[in-house]
Design a protein that fits this description.
Blueprint: H1 8-18, H2 23-40, E1 46-51, E2 55-60, E3 65-69
Antiparallel strand pairs: 1-2, 2-3
């Protein structure tokens, strides 16, 4: 959403900045976040885990749900099915 006084040009600049994101750095950050979440789960019993369209959901016996997103893996090379 555009903020007050934001021009179309600055919105385009914001989108172009997304192109500069290092995928390896993003994977590292996601891995660190997943590790931190898993560290909080020590001693918990996992009652279910499911894979949704864009995330993995892990539910513990006490009803807590944890969400893990798919930045950690690699996409298959183009042309592989």
């Amino acid at each position: 959403m555009k903020g007050q006084g934001e021009t179309g040009a600055s919105a385009v600049d914001d989108l172009l900045n997304l192109l500069e994101i290092d995928p390896d750095a993003l994977r590292e950050a996601e891995f660190a976040q997943a590790q931190a979440i898993l560290d909080t789960m020590v001693g918990e019993t996992i009652s279910s885990a499911s894979m949704e369209d864009r995330r993995i959901v892990v539910e513990t016996a006490n009803g807590n749900r944890y969400f893990f997103y798919g930045f950690m893996g690699n996409a298959p090379p183009v042309g592989d099915a």
